[in-house]
Amino acid sequence: MAERTLGVGLLGGGVIGAGWAARFVLNGINVRVHDPDAEAERIVREVVENARSAYDRLTLAPLPPEGELAFVDSVEEAADGVDLIQESAPERLDLKRELLAAADRAAHPDALICSSTSGLRPSELQAQMARPGRFLVAHPFNPVYLLPLVELCGGARTAPESLERAHALYASVGMHPLVVRTEIDGFLADRLLEALWREALWLVRDEVATAAEVDDAIRYGAGLRWAFMGTFLTYRIAGGEAGMRHFLDQFGPALAWPWTKLTDVPELTDELVDAIAAQSDEQAGGWSVRELERLRDRVLVRLLQALRSEETGAGATLAAWERGLLATAPRPEPSGDGPLRLHARRVPADWIDYNGHVHESRYLQLFADANDALLGALGIDAAYLGAGGSYFTVETHLSHLRQLEAGDRVHVTTQVLGADAKRLHVFHVLLRDGEPEPLATAEQMLLHVDTASGRAAPARDAVRERAAALACRHASLPRPERAGRSIGSR
Ligand SMILES: NC(=O)c1ccc[n+]([C@@H]2O[C@H](COP(=O)([O-])OP(=O)(O)OC[C@H]3O[C@@H](n4cnc5c(N)ncnc54)[C@H](O)[C@@H]3O)[C@@H](O)[C@H]2O)c1
Q1: DSSP codes, 32-79
Q2: I need a labelling partner for 78 at 20 to 30 A (CA). Which of 142, 379, 389, 465 fits?
Q3: Comparing C-alpha atoms, which of 291, 292, 301, 287 is closest to residue 52?
Q4: Residues 151 and 189: beta-carbon distance below 8 Å
Q5: What CA–CA distance (Å, rounded) separates 78 from 66?
Q6: Ligand 1: does its nearest atom lie under 6 Å from the Cβ of 431?
Q7: Closest C-alpha residue for ligand 1 atom 15
Q8: pLDDT tens digits for the chain (490 residues)?
Q9: DSSP assignment of 307-371
Q10: End-to-end CA distance of the chain
Q11: Is 120's C-beta closer than 6 angstroms to any atom of ligand 1?
């Protein structure tokens, strides 16, 4: 057995396995995928690429260096030496049992083993395992790299400690683990989703509505609320000032009316399958699956960001993940003789505007991110901000010198031109990696403020001293040619 490395072994690299690969790799964890399908590597790499551009837009928090992504030929190679084995093979009990038992034999005794199953019971799945205590279901949602929910459900022989470890592990990669306390078929989310799916199928089967009309009935109304209120909170508000009691009084009797088909299942005859498939093709309007996935991801990113601005629902999970990334990112050391190199990133495709150019606001964003990195290096962390101290940018002079292109790898260098108790005067240069000519420069003045009063105030001792030391060291560098310029008019 090989020495253990922090990593994950994935069994199955389809829709869900590829999503797990992206979630883990982009959180800096090495991943080994085993899937007998010759197309699996291509699919997983395409999904990881989509996820990469979604993360570029999702967060400005410093992501760790990507984990390595490798493809292996056996369960044993995938399971050897990793901390977690995540099984995402087809939904067949016999196949999953076999894979899980093989993983159990090959894995280090401390490794967790989890299944992505949508509805099979963990007690059934762990039946052939020699160490069933380390097994549980960890049921994610598609796309796994953006949707934070993962339902955790142990079986009869799962050790409580495994649930705790799994909870911590999934939370550390930005997920919201929800422990399903009682082992039931379909867990929580699929029980709810299946009820809706059954009704949707009946409505199409009875020719009451088309697939597109059923989707409209969700996406223009309740779907918008569900993302942050779920169902109980929605109905509490619908009860007005009298709340849930009033809602139950008013609408409770309607539950007994024959609105829904409850547990009846429409027979999926060839005719019905053909009708639904044709309506679904029409709805997709010629878009490929990858194109639809990219649209889905762009909208999900914006939705998650809206939720984060209120720190509610999935947005609270995103904010907690970002705080963790910031807390664990190595603090850039303001060392060396030259200007600091504090911020680097790849230019994402969606920074391109309607003219085919990177929008001018993105240049400012890159310099603002470099300022954040500089402030981190000076010791401004969550505790400092929480105590009411921060720098605000009060003046910027930005020179656009050359065009940025989508996909460029760029970095910003920063020279501190001056620092006193309240002011920090900086000069940034934006460069494409490997090229000496600047793409843009920005000279900025930052003012230290007491955020409670909103007024300028001296920076605290350690921050002030670091800023002054940097300014002193950078005073020996040549003064940038563009420093002190105003708008040029010749
Ligand atoms: N698709 C979803 O929305 C969704 C959501 C949550 C959970 N799940 C669950 O995730 C699991 C996988 O579903 P999916 O949608 O990714 O299916 P999928 O068909 O897209 O992928 C399954 C993959 O498993 C591979 N596979 C087959 N035999 C294998 C073996 N012996 N060893 C390793 N890999 C093998 C297949 O080649 C395929 O790539 C299922 O248990 C499903 O219930 C699916």
Answers
A1: EEE-S-TTHHHHHHHHHHHHHHHHHHH--S-PPPPPPEEEESSHHHHH
A2: 142
A3: 301
A4: yes
A5: 19
A6: no
A7: 15
A8: 444 457 999 999 999 999 999 999 999 999 999 999 999 999 999 999 999 989 988 987 888 999 999 999 999 999 999 999 999 999 999 999 999 999 999 999 999 999 999 989 999 999 989 999 999 999 999 999 999 999 999 999 999 999 999 999 999 999 999 999 999 988 999 989 999 999 999 999 999 999 999 999 999 999 999 998 888 888 888 878 777 888 788 877 877 777 666 677 888 889 988 988 898 888 888 888 888 888 899 999 999 999 998 889 999 999 999 888 877 776 666 666 789 998 888 887 778 877 778 889 999 999 999 999 899 889 898 789 889 999 999 999 999 999 998 888 899 999 999 999 999 999 999 999 999 999 999 999 999 999 999 999 999 989 999 999 999 999 999 999 999 998 876 5
A9: HHHTT-THHHHHHHHHHHHHHHSPPPP--SSS-EEEEEEE--GGGB-TTSSB-HHHHHHHHHHHH
A10: 72
A11: no
Evaluate: CB of 15 within 6 angstroms of ligand 1. yes
CA 153 to ligand 1 center in whole angstroms: 18
Whole-number Å distance, alpha carbon 92 to ligand 1 midpoint, is 10
Compute, in angstroms, the gap from residue 16 CA to the centroid of ligand 1. 6
The alpha carbon of 431 and the centre of ligand 1 are apart by a number of angstroms equal to: 43
